[in-house]
Amino acid sequence: MNILVCIKQVPDTKIIKVNPKTNTLDRSSAPAILNPYDAHAVEEAVRLREIHGGKVIVLSMGPPQARNAIRKCVEIGADEGYLISDRRFAGADTLATSYALFKAIEKLQHEQGIDLVLCGKHAIDGDTGQVGPGIARRMEIPPLTNVIKVEEVDLEGGKLKVRRKIENGYELIQSSLPCLLTVEKEINEVAYSPLPNMLRAARYEPTVWTVDDLDDVDIKQLGLKGSPTIVGKMWPPEKSSGAEMIEGEAKEQVEKLLAITLEKRELFGVKGGEK
Amino acid sequence: MNIEEYKDVWVFIEQRDGQIIDVGLELLGAGRDLADKLEVNLCGVLLGHDVKDSASDLFSYGADKVYVIDDPILEKYRTETYMKAVGDLVRKYKPEIFLYGATSNGKDLASAVATEVMTGLTADTTLLDVNLEKRLFEASRPAFGGNIMATILCKKHRPQMATVRPKVMKKPEPEEGREGEIIEEKITLKEEDLRTKVLEIVRDAKKAVNLEEADVIVAAGKGIKDEKGFNMVKELAEVLNATVGASRDVVEAGLCGHDHQVGQTGLTVTPKIYFAIGISGAVQHVVGMQNSDMIIAINNDPEAAIFNAAHYGIVADAFQIVPMLTEEFRKALKGEEAGGVTANV
Amino acid sequence: MSEKFDVIVVGAGPAGTSCAYTAAKNGLKVLLIERGEYPGSKNVMGGILYRKQLEEIIPEFWKEAPIERPVVEQRFWFLDKESMITTSYKGLEWAKEPYNNFTVLRAKFDKWFADKAVEQGALLINETVATECIVEDGKVVGVRTDRPDGDVYADVVVLADGVNSLLAKQLGFHKEWKPNEVALTVMEVLKLPSKTINERFNVKDGQGVSVEIFGDATHGILGTGFLYTNKDSVNIGVGTTLSGMMKKKLKPYELLEHVKQHPMIQPYIEGSETQEYLAHLIPEGGFNSVPKLVGNGVIVTGDAAQFVNAIHREGSNMAMSSGKIAAETIVKAKETGDFSEKTLDSYRTEIYDSFIGKDLKKYKDAAHTFEENPQYFQEYVPLMNQAMNTFFTVDGTPKWEKQKKIIAKMTAGRGKIGLAKDMYKAWKAVK
Ligand SMILES: Cc1cc2nc3c(=O)[nH]c(=O)nc-3n(C[C@H](O)[C@H](O)[C@H](O)COP(=O)(O)OP(=O)(O)OC[C@H]3O[C@@H](n4cnc5c(N)ncnc54)[C@H](O)[C@@H]3O)c2cc1C
Ligand SMILES: Cc1cc2nc3c(=O)[nH]c(=O)nc-3n(C[C@H](O)[C@H](O)[C@H](O)COP(=O)(O)OP(=O)(O)OC[C@H]3O[C@@H](n4cnc5c(N)ncnc54)[C@H](O)[C@@H]3O)c2cc1C
Ligand SMILES: Nc1ncnc2c1ncn2[C@@H]1O[C@H](COP(=O)(O)O)[C@@H](O)[C@H]1O
Hints:
Low-confidence stretches of chain A: 19-25
Largest sheet of chain A: 9 strands, mixed
Number of domains of chain B: 2
CATH topology of chain A: Rossmann fold
CATH architecture of the largest domain in chain B: 3-Layer(aba) Sandwich
Order of helices and strands of chain B: EEEHEHHEHEHEEEEEEEEHEHEHEHEH
Strand content of chain A: 25-35%
CATH architecture of chain A: 3-Layer(aba) Sandwich
CATH superfamily of the largest domain in chain B: HUPs
Cofactor (chain B): FAD
Bound molecules: flavin-adenine dinucleotide, adenosine monophosphate
Shape of chain A: globular
Strand content of chain B: 25-35%
Structural class of chain B: alpha/beta
Keywords (chain B): FAD, Flavoprotein
Order of helices and strands of chain A: EEEEEHEHEHEHEEEEHEEEH
Strand order of the largest sheet of chain B: 7-11-6-1-4-5-12
Oligomer: heterotrimer
Distance between the termini of chain B: 52 Å
Strand order of the largest sheet of chain A: 11-10-9-12-8-1-6-7-13
GO molecular function, one term (chain B): electron transfer activity
Radius of gyration of chain B: 22 Å
Low-confidence stretches of chain B: 337-345
Family (chain B): Belongs to the ETF alpha-subunit/FixB family.
Helix content of chain A: 25-40%
Largest interface: A-B, 87 and 107 residues
Number of helices of chain A: 6
CATH superfamily of chain A: HUPs
Largest sheet of chain B: 7 strands, parallel
Organism (chain B): Salipaludibacillus aurantiacus
């Protein structure tokens, strides 16, 4: 079973800090990392390969540095990595991203056959989660989003069963293969990679494709040009009138706060939302 | 694409087990404003099986029309059926704006439909408006990594679509007796042609944490530093019979599970009282709690952004003041406790 | 099935990377193992990078290395509670090529430097801890890592794993450092707009200042503080011997807080925002603490070998030179195929012939002198401040009377002879 995983390099948003006074981003110290959800997707693909054989191929669209994210996937156990990198891809929104990735997948599908596509639930820099379903639609395969467990893969029958997380629980879904899954972090724990993988990854050079390496690309659908959405204005969120400050020594502050909140003391009687 | 042909504001009405869930009604409220400004109709889109009867309820929440497709094939949500059904409706009736709740299924559907009809989609918005001069939908969301809001526009494609966080928009008061038009459509798919099947739905009857319904939330931010600080906050929550919330940084630090996370990628909450302890007030957090009735912020940095969102602010060291608060509340509430209830962690 | 390399270098700090760079450049098959998320992610340094030693490895490195500011002024502050005596040298010739030294942020610099080694053909793996040397027949033949299938082999293993060097300790090359052989340094990177830095330190863009701080900064414990200017941040730190800190029952961050709050220092950092907080040991035992440097198939470099000049706060330069010499030694050994202790021993002799050995020897008593005679920091710096105060305060007292008073104060504790002795000892230690 050949599994293709779409992976993205993102800035580590845990480290990016915003200066609340100036509203400026401090990106200088934020290293680029493999989108954490995508690491779980690669891990899942590697586990499925261990059982069902085949290859794990990772695909990313991004600047040349994204090769490092692909190497990270090789550490986890991916067999091959492809990076599509070209100025003409730049500035893509989710619609244009899914188009570009789809074109590359099409080529890989043609060259080596793809049975399953995996994506992360979302990329932590934008949190949209829109690229996965977009790719599935373009490939005309079913998307199964928010997957927390692959229950069963029946290669011969050409189908699989997964658990999909929904509000307040999960659903068990069956789908024919190929299909596309987007995975949640709960799906697995990314294992500590063995040393031979590390060595292989350090040496690994992903295949880099430009637009010209892909077949029948409609340039108008790529990058900024192919993106229906654009960012209008950006502004710091409205400062409301601001808080009434409770001044004084700690003891005084506590007293004043108690006076305010105990007017609503009935709220503290029983726990809300406890059914 | 002739943009002029696209009229009306649509809202996807999500149902679970045949019951309409709140987010669709909230969006009818928000959609009503947009439709009034644009002087067009507000329409609901309701898909499912045996749901037709619920359709008329939507008029009292502001819908002028409801498109209904009632078919056994649509009983349970599946991307392939819903995407096709909604895609057909869009192609036929051409809405100008289309809103979806940012739930698992809402996001899944909106993403698929956007590709199906080739249009733009803005994720997780928290603020909606229209620019009448240019007749453009302005969907805004907290932007990447920062204390910044960004407005996303979709100039040349229709419909202009967005997913909207549940609980961010206010559910309107129903207006009894308000009427509208129901338009029934058919779906052309056959079960045998489908590739997916929902085998089972398992709902956790009792969820461990129920932040969304809590009246009082005591939320911890990275200012509480570590497990010790987190326990201190938990203790206050226990005394107040409150539920424990957290910022993403606290969740990422492993101090509690993701189901405690408040904010853009966590839950949106609207308790009667929200204590924000050691939380800086990044926009991604604030969008998840700004509609609480009373917000009390404790932070040792007088410049912290959280004080802009709060109603009451205390500049103090949490490690000093929280134990004092816990103690004083314990004294003041003695005898009133429901007894034996512990904080949900 | 495990792979074999010509050289495995443990630790991608200045020492390890210099070694990997030089070895790879000479055609050896090199593996560089770093435990941090990336080189530099865990490394701490006050931030002065000396030009010469790196230039010998990468000529004109400053044209592309991520340096913060060339240092054009070196200041020394002797603090008392509310006063200080300062001396400084500023030379604008240092603002031009080839410069004198630079401030750097290690997180950026180490990563860049390691990438250079990779460009030369070294293989770098991060997030991997070398847990021990693999020893066969009395020879080091490789290292074991904390990863599954984690053994990897080489003709020579170079230990560049920093001050704690667990690996050298396992080989019995040194014992646990004594508390007076290592200094604990804590520092913070404080964000400040570059304009503010320029104004407060009286420099232009592209010019930096280093400040060494003595006296009240360390609560009288042996040690010093420092303040270095980066592009848009400053590094502030304070280091003292572990033994001193233990004696005074001080926590590292308390000491740093004390420095930051000092009325002479606070105006320089006012309004800044803490970006990073770091704590690290510096080997300060000097010459007398240098461990065994060479064994069969193994060489020790950099901080792991205690190559630090504590008085001048030089370490990264010695680390780089030692890494380079180690690589050159291995390149030569490779020609003969003999990696025994005897062959590799030329590393040791070369180190002792280089500035590393000479400087270490020169200052070999310095640290101990100050450790055993805390009065330098506890008494003389305040006394000097008081003396200046008495001298410069205009209050109508004739100057000669003031001088008398000063001398009386300074000798009150120890007498004239004691004072003279102390001065001589200090001079000998650092001359
Ligand atoms: C795409 C994306 C989605 C995100 N989604 C979410 C989300 O859903 N929810 C969320 O919360 N965040 C989210 N974030 C992260 C968000 O941007 C902030 O980084 C995060 O909310 C900060 O958490 P914090 O306030 O707890 O920590 P910090 O920003 O570290 O703030 C800690 C605060 O504690 C104060 N403090 C420190 N010590 C004390 C003390 N002793 N006593 C009192 N106060 C003290 C400090 O002054 C500071 O204000 C998201 C980010 C991105 C990029
Ligand atoms: C606060 C401070 C200020 C200083 N100021 C200056 C200054 O201004 N100028 C100057 O020249 N010097 C200064 N020094 C000294 C200088 O930092 C060191 O001498 C220099 O970094 C030594 O380099 P190294 O490569 O030997 O060790 P390190 O820089 O410590 O590098 C060791 C590397 O090995 C890695 N490592 C350790 N163990 C393992 C393992 N088992 N497996 C894998 N990897 C491992 C570590 O992660 C690290 O990257 C300062 C030191 C400190 C602490
Ligand atoms: N540029 C990209 N290259 C490869 N995969 C991507 C890219 N952008 C998004 N993805 C995939 O789509 C998922 C969801 O991303 P997003 O829709 O941006 O939140 C990610 O977890 C990836 O699996």
